[in-house]
Write a structure and sequence with these properties.
Helices cover 43% and strands 13% of the residues. The chain has 453 residues and is an alpha/beta fold. It has 4 domains: 9-127, Rossmann fold (3-Layer(aba) Sandwich); 143-307, Rossmann fold; 311-381, Helicase, Ruva Protein, domain 3; 393-453, Orthogonal Bundle (Arc Repressor Mutant, subunit A), CATH 1.10.10.60. The strands form 5 sheets. The protein has a 5-stranded parallel sheet with strand order 2-1-3-6-7, with helices on both faces. The chain has a 5-stranded parallel sheet with strand order 9-10-13-8-14. β1, α1 and β2 form a beta-alpha-beta unit. α2 (40-49) runs parallel beside α3 (66-76), α13 crosses α15 (354-368) and α17 crosses α18. The radius of gyration is 25 Å and the shape is globular.
Amino acid sequence: MLKQPLTPLCLVVDDEADIRELLVLTLERMGLCVHSAGDVSTAKQLLEQHHYALCLTDMRLPDGDGLELMRHIGLRRPGLPVAVITAYGSAENAVAALKAGAFDYLSKPISLKQLRPLVQSALKLSESPSEPAGGLALIGDSAPIRQARAMIEKLARSQAPVYISGESGSGKELAARLIHANSSRSDGPFVPVNCGAIPENLMESEFFGYKKGAFTGAQQDKSGFFQAASGGTLFLDEVADLPLPMQVKLLRAIQEKKVRMVGSTSEEAVDVRIISATHRNLAKMMEAGQFRQDLYYRLNVIELKMPALREMPEDIPQLAETLLARHCQELASSRPHLTDEALALLRKYGFPGNVRELENVLERALALCDGARIEAEDLLLNVSGTPASGALPAGSSDIPLPEYLETIEKQAILEALEKSGQNKTAAAKLLGVSFRTLRYRLAKLGLGREEEY
């Protein structure tokens, strides 16, 4: 069995002697011990003899490539972070390496400003396993939620861009926070950005910052989201709402790991991990020309799909109890218990708004119940669950008028959102209401919170 050295030991694999020497000198100045190899076979021999904390390998080697070495390490030294070195402009190679399990990548010519934080992040993973994120958790024991938890644990050990898909209210931001909190970047900031809430004319300055005098009103330098997330994670929520011109600028920032502030003549390196999410279908938007193909493949290196609540009804009782406990703690009140009839109703209901809608339903029930228990009628849910076909529920004449009207309104809004491809501005036009009114009604009906739109 190989012994863990007191000083972290790194392996550099590159057939170009000058690059190999530069990497060795840089790592040694960081206080690390370094071994180097010029080909795959030598690297494999060294891996059998020593316990490494990090491997840096070129993609092109005389007797193989970096991907072959990565596969060997995956089988013989699982858990060893591997960063690949790609030729300038070889975006496809970088994406292929990340998909194959690379911790991160560096592009030639190698920037020492980018190398140092990469090494520090990798060493954090090697020093000790990540601890569970305090206060954050995916609740439930169903197969879909267990699968999501396992994927999050795996993604936390990488620097690869992650794309989180799933319906509105399914916990995409929570998943992003869990990936960050259990990663080597947990000490850095987590910066969430709602891409759909930023006016188009302000996007570049909000993302990349601006220099004093760059435009009227720019009285001093101001950092953007990328600078604010330096050393941590930038979470781009509803990334599908980015206009095409901004998609081009975002692509360059992700590829080059550099940004240019508005009004600046030079670029600055940024150390940021990108996690993006949307409830819309990016693949269909790409086919329709609404989302850039090259950006899609840059963001969707690894996909995490968050399950809808209707796919895991067995988790609803545990989720409901957890949400009730949280709200009662915030209100400093005693927690009522859900009756068997109320729990049965919750499990039957389809929850088009997923966990977010469940939370809103329970908040409403807390206000209506007698304080000791929550009855089925306190939930104000349609007994037949969510109509699947858009038809009105059976026995609708027996439903109280407010609930009957709410059901009709919810169906109309969901149909408009479906027809408009989840574009809220277009859906508002179809419904003949203002965007502001639609935003309010979505929050009121438990399909979202007003401040999130």
